[in-house]
Design brief:
Length: 59
Amino acid sequence: MFRRKPLEERIAERVAKRPPLKEGKHFEHRPALIVFCVVVAIALVKIVGAFFLMKSGLR
């Protein structure tokens, strides 16, 4: 529209500039690791909270 490359081409160029992923690493960048850890922590808190409520007899 304004003489810009399509989004797919811009993303492909950005991905091509990245260095290859190091052997043994599961996350490409730190924010992905942080988001993963937060999601796992929330799930664990919910499970522990539900277990506590069941043990205390509350519904």
